[in-house]
Specification:
The chain is mainly α and 64 residues long. It is built from two helices and no strands.
Amino acid sequence: MEQFLKEKIVETKREIDRLTNVCQTKPVESADFFENEFQIERLAAQIEIYEQILKKVQEEQIMK
């Protein structure tokens, strides 16, 4: 589970980087720009959740 969460965090960060690069090439007024910005926000929230779950999993392993 711990490895899976770490992989998801890395994958999600890569996707954020990719979308950030795409946003830098699009005009700010374009619908694609706003869609990508919303996607980046959603992915950032996913990372926070993955990190919270990972922390909980690690704490439970320590307590065993």
